[in-house]
Amino acid sequence: MEKIRYFDHAATTSVDEDVLKEMLPFFSIEYGNPSSIYSIGRHAKKAVEESRQKVARVINSIPREIYFTSCGSESDNLAIKGIAYANKCKGNHIITSKIEHPAVLNTCKSLESEGFNITYLDVDKNGFINLSDLENNITNKTILISIMFANNEIGTIQLIKDIGLIAKKHNVIFHTDAVQAVGNIQIDVKKMNIDLLSMSGHKFYGPKGIGALYVRKNIDFKKLQDGGHQEKDKRAGTENVAEIVGLGKAIEKAYDNLEYNNCKIRKLRDFYENEIEQRIPYIKFNGNRNNRLPGNSNISFEGINGEELLFKLDEKLICASAGSACSSGSSSPSHVLLAIGLKENFSKGSLRISFGKENTMDDTKYLIESLVQIIKSLRKNI
Predict the structure, then answer these.
(1) Is 222:82 a contact under the CB 8 Å cutoff?
(2) Which residues are catalytic?
(3) How far from 49 is each of 66, 204, 373, CA to CA, in Å?
(4) Cα–Cα distance for residue pair 186/255, rounded to 1 Å
(5) DSSP string, 120-139
(6) Which pLDDT tens digit goes with each residue over 183-235?
(7) What is the mean pLDDT of residues 118-122?
(8) Is the domain of 215 the same as that of 227?
(9) What is the DSSP string of 305-335?
(10) Within the chain, how many helices (H) and strands (E) appear?
(11) Is the pLDDT confidence value at 329 over 60?
């Protein structure tokens, strides 16, 4: 079978072999319910708490500030709605940005239908919010600021520490969707003034179906589902022990190898971009080319239909995307690209390549040669 070249790590990653190995006993040997008092239940409980410690250590928090969820989207919902409901007696105003992930934008839209007032901040051509704009929009009714750490489409890394300082100055709670950042960027929730942070295991070589939410101690939030008293009575349901173990191992390994992986990935990305820039005319790089995720590259090709481009790449066994996997199936241009002011003749021909640790230089050269041929072929037809 011919090799598949995978360049869509922002959508998901494969489960690391060491992660899978650590998970396997909890499917068939250590299968106890963590709430049970007998030995295999206690073993499961210990494994859950060890993973909680691993997550806390990586982001410089404490274990009791970590809550396990099913994914990044649930973490975002629990953070935003949980804070909104717990603080509605203080105010009903929430500030976010126009380039957030649908898990944040649609959660905010849902709250709007319940009477909450949402401000959606504009971004500049590189995807950055304006800090003065943020501060000027804070009122005495503002209870939450939710700004993503790193954008899933264009890779832009926001000035998180500065945003946190503004929130702290005005006594407003600050949440960040760090789903794309965790595993790729050093994060210190204390130094960065972060009150709540969302993450998802499958973005850093852990399994799908497991996420976590950091909530700074002494911050109250409402639970969204009723049931048992798991996760300190904030998230009912029997813990998914195997996947929690997987998330703990994945985040530990990601940060043990962070500098090495990032150096390798940046080298591949920069080589790819330099070659594309020299060999394909009428293109536009989207986002900031410096302050962005190490594996992210988002390029628009003038006059090209993005969906057709992806099909042609797929025929060559190359996996890539036009933007967020959670927005696939939509015929509309990306809300992120529209927010940064990209014109329609470019916005419909966007290609997001996100490199990962298993990509090689040979893979990258194959991608470049394939893309040069495909773009040339597609442009002949317009």
Answers:
(1) yes
(2) 326
(3) 10, 20, 52
(4) 8
(5) EE-B-TTSPBPHHHHHHT--
(6) 999 999 999 999 999 999 999 999 999 999 999 999 999 998 889 899 888 99
(7) 98
(8) yes
(9) -HHHHHHHHHHTTEE-BSS-GGGTT--SPPH
(10) 14, 12
(11) no
**Which CATH number belongs to the domain containing residue 263 in this structure?**
3.90.1150.10
How much is the pTM? 0.95
Cβ-based neighbour number of residue 183 at 10 Å: 26
- Residues 314, 304: one domain? yes
Q: Say yes or no: 157 and 169 in one domain.
A: yes
Q: 309 and 280 in one domain?
A: yes
Judge contact between 78 and 221, C-beta under 8 A: yes
Mean pLDDT within 317-330 = 70
Structural domain of 189: 17-256
What are 197's two structure tokens?
Answer: 């942070």
Question: What are phi and psi for residue 281, nearest 5 degrees?
Answer: -80, 170
Of 227, 256, 285, which residue constitutes the final position of a domain?
256
**pLDDT of 334-351, one tens digit each?**
899 999 999 877 888 999
The pLDDT of 138-148, averaged and rounded, is 98
